[in-house]
Each structure stands twice: as C-alpha cells, then as structure tokens.
Amino acid sequence: MPGVRSSTSNRNRTICDPSLPRAGMLIAFDFDGTLSDSEMTVLLGEEAGVADEIDDITERAMNDELSYAESLYARAELLDGLESSAVDAAFNRVALRPGSADVIEALSEAGHHVAILTGGFEQGVERALETEGVSVDTVVANRLPARNGTLTGDAEGPLIEGTKDDALADLADEVGVSMDDTVAIGDGANDLPMLEVAGLAVGYEPKPAVEPHCDTVVASMAELLDLLEAKAVL
Ligand SMILES: [Mg+2]
C-alpha cells in the first residue's frame, strides 16, 4: 500500500483513523433467523405435513438442547420422500427479511467480502438472493440429496458436522483477512462457534443461550446498519 510507506503522509493518518470505514473486512451472516425470518426446514416441513415436529426439533437445536448435526439429520429424515415439486415450492417461499438486501449491498459497495454460512440449504439461499436481485461473495451451505425426484431423507454438506468457526477461519484465510477484521451475525446455537472467534460478534434477536456470547445485539436490519456505521464497518 503506497499510502503507508511514509508515516508523515496524510494518507497514512487516514488509514489509521479508527473513525473512518475500513474496507476489505469479512462479514459472515447466518441465514435462517438472521438474513431471513423463516426457517427452511420448517417451510419444507409444511410441504410434507410435518412442520410442527420440525419446528420443535429446530427450537431445541437453536437453544443448544440438541446437537446441530443430530437435529439436522432428524429433520431431513422427516422429509424423506418429499417430491421435488414440493421442495421447489418450499424453496420459492424462502425470503430475505426487509432490509437484508440493503445491508448486503452496502457492505459489498464498501468493499467487504460478504459471506453466508448456513446450516440451511444452498437452493433456498440462492432463490432468496435472486428474488431480491442481490448477490454475496461466498455461500457455505448444506444440501438435501434427492433420488428419482424425491428427497432421500439424508442431508449432506460442510455445516452439519463441520462448525462455523472453522468455516469462518478457512474463509478468512482464503480471502486474506485477519480474524480481527471479521464480523459474524447470527441468532442460534450453531452460530456460537463463529460468534466466539469473530472480531465482532453480533446477535440478531439471539436465542437466550446465544445472547451472552454476543458483543452486541440488534433487532432489525436498520439497527444493524446503524451498528455497522458506528463500528466504522460502513
Ligand atoms: Mg439461524
């Protein structure tokens, strides 16, 4: 960086001024319950007529009463045999919450690497982003495999046994960002690992088990925008 060669240049002082926005950070969002106010497995469960059972398992997992892997496999099993048209219908209903697209756009425009790290599913995330006409730099998500046009009842992907702290650290390494320059935003127990290692841990209406581990908590995307401005991320 030419501006940092001379300690007397204005540019150097500017770079070190903590009140000015920093570019090139890594911002990692959870999806269900954070960027979206729905839960993908519940939407799928509604199509399969098992929404209540799935909701119950999800709640227990998000409150850290059940391991995430156990809960995801149990939910996938309840979806065994669901037809592709119903899976499609569920994914078409996945939506970003109001203001999410604006936050993603503002972060991208500011030069940050925006990532979604979710135990939810690629297709649902992609559908929701497409609908809003926004994109992110990286999506790390799981998949529900299908055979002969129906779900197999299994689940696969990097964030079942794998945890979001490793996913965040790997991504930070890949994009060349130090962990101090990472921000994690999430709501559930499966976000705890990434909230614990991120430079800034933001709870989005976090579950009771999660809140004590957050540096700060927000209850809307407008509040998140304000926070990111206050922290000189934007
Ligand atoms: Mg969540």
Automatic annotation (TrEMBL):
The keyword Ion transport does not apply. Residues 100-133 form the Rhodanese domain. Its EC number is 3.1.3.3. InterPro entries: HAD-like_SerB, HAD-like_sf, HAD_sf, PSP, Rhodanese-like_dom. GO terms for biological process: L-serine biosynthetic process. GO terms for cellular component: cytoplasm. Pathway: Amino-acid biosynthesis; L-serine biosynthesis; L-serine from 3-phospho-D-glycerate: step 3/3. Keywords: Amino-acid biosynthesis, Hydrolase, Magnesium, Metal-binding, Serine biosynthesis. One of its GO terms (molecular function) is magnesium ion binding. The keyword DNA-binding does not apply. The active site is at D30 (nucleophile), D32 (proton donor). Its cofactor is Mg(2+). Belongs to the HAD-like hydrolase superfamily. SerB family. This is phosphoserine phosphatase. It comes from Natronomonas pharaonis (strain ATCC 35678 / DSM 2160 / CIP 103997 / JCM 8858 / NBRC 14720 / NCIMB 2260 / Gabara). The lineage of its organism: Archaea, Methanobacteriati, Methanobacteriota, Stenosarchaea group, Halobacteria.
